[in-house]
């Protein structure tokens, strides 16, 4: 008998615990549990693309920049976590406590009360050239040695935009630099108000409470995620100050200035700038070109300076004390200018008088010419010098504009060359001329008259009975495209003096080249634009509307709501009301109506009809 007993196995139920030694690869876990398991989490690439947009710029404190946690992704998609929000670009407002300028960058040390951070602003340094020594080469110097010795390059330091103690607003990218954080500046501006820094504190505190520190996961906006890559480029590919490339010269003189960014629309764009008259090609020297340039000058000339009588007297006193002869200069007596100029030339000094278009001025005299300040004519009435008033152009004034006078001379000479070339090709024998040759000044005046008449016939300019521009205050503004005006003017003067004898014009004396005094009661013209025609069109709409209401009252009918005149009705009314508007075009009336609509003075009803706005509008 065996004392051995068999014990049946006891099955015990134990709860097995499954421990994951590594995180699941199907769903990436964001740092600090920023995303929960509910719903699909955005990938690191999507988050990085969103941080490139302008909506991802995070206003924060300097302390927040140091407390940000790294994303842990590769360097190309690097970003940081500001609480639950991914961040790559921040906005800081603080006081500059230190500035250090280098050749290619400026380091700003910004303190906002929470910490101090280093902000690096890169610059494009100007090209520096080595300085050459002017020592003459010795006669016995070996050929191998060079007489031009290059000195070390002059390092031009970048110029800071503000000094220590200035409040600034900085937008830039957060970077890890030497085991600390640094801001790579994209934009830096001075604070315009002392309240900018407290307002920034209040906004950041509100964002921390309502956005950065919320317990819910961050979700990339769908509309922004689709266009994130196309809207904003990485910082490395976007320079702060783009270089302007010089375009190839265009044969057409009527080139306009374009903006660098087509996405941004400027409401008040700068007027187009034509090429400088001295830089026009020979094929562009035609009468039609001169007509276009004359209209461009009348459209964009700067209004004359308007000063009071007291300023005028003080200017005259200062000129009388600074005059070299000790007497006030009288602009009406040109003999005094000529005598004084000849006296200076005999003494070897530079002429300081205003050059006339007909004079032949040497290059050195034009280089040292310094224009005098404007002088107000005391004969002008007070209502004529009101701010924003219109001033007409006379033929005498236009002929005294140096650029237009020089262009007219070039066109007359070019036309003479063309005719001489055609006669040589045709093989015509030119008979001996018994009549004297026509002077260049007479031909240029004829070109001015032709251009003014053509502009008046096409309706671009109209007669003007108001104040006119003074011929002693000719404006030579920066309205031409082609570099420095003085350089172009010197080039034009030399070209004019060199080519005047090549085509057979008579050499004119200096006194004969001066223009005559403007006649009394000379006709004046003004360019027809929307600003000048605005009040006229507004009065026409009012008159036509009242006329329509009067007809309705005479017919003993119930007066309906006024419908207003159309563009064609306004044009016909103006043409019949005054001979000045006989050549008025529909296009200028349409432009004027659009201008009045923008200013809130008229509004358009059905069927393209216009009514005046009430004072309550």
From TrEMBL:
<feature type="region of interest" description="Disordered">
    <location>
        <begin position="301"/>
        <end position="364"/>
    </location>
</feature>
<keyword id="KW-0539">Nucleus</keyword>
<protein>
    <recommendedName>
        <fullName>CST complex subunit STN1</fullName>
    </recommendedName>
</protein>
<dbReference type="InterPro" id="IPR040260">
    <property type="entry name" value="RFA2-like"/>
</dbReference>
<dbReference type="GO" id="GO:0005634">
    <property type="term" value="C:nucleus"/>
</dbReference>
<feature type="compositionally biased region" description="Low complexity">
    <location>
        <begin position="249"/>
        <end position="272"/>
    </location>
</feature>
<keyword id="KW-0158">Chromosome</keyword>
<keyword id="KW-0238">DNA-binding</keyword>
<dbReference type="InterPro" id="IPR012340">
    <property type="entry name" value="NA-bd_OB-fold"/>
</dbReference>
<feature type="region of interest" description="Disordered">
    <location>
        <begin position="121"/>
        <end position="141"/>
    </location>
</feature>
<feature type="region of interest" description="Disordered">
    <location>
        <begin position="21"/>
        <end position="41"/>
    </location>
</feature>
<dbReference type="GO" id="GO:0003677">
    <property type="term" value="F:DNA binding"/>
</dbReference>
<keyword id="KW-0779">Telomere</keyword>
<dbReference type="GO" id="GO:0000781">
    <property type="term" value="C:chromosome, telomeric region"/>
</dbReference>
<feature type="region of interest" description="Disordered">
    <location>
        <begin position="415"/>
        <end position="440"/>
    </location>
</feature>
<feature type="compositionally biased region" description="Basic residues">
    <location>
        <begin position="333"/>
        <end position="345"/>
    </location>
</feature>
<feature type="region of interest" description="Disordered">
    <location>
        <begin position="236"/>
        <end position="282"/>
    </location>
</feature>
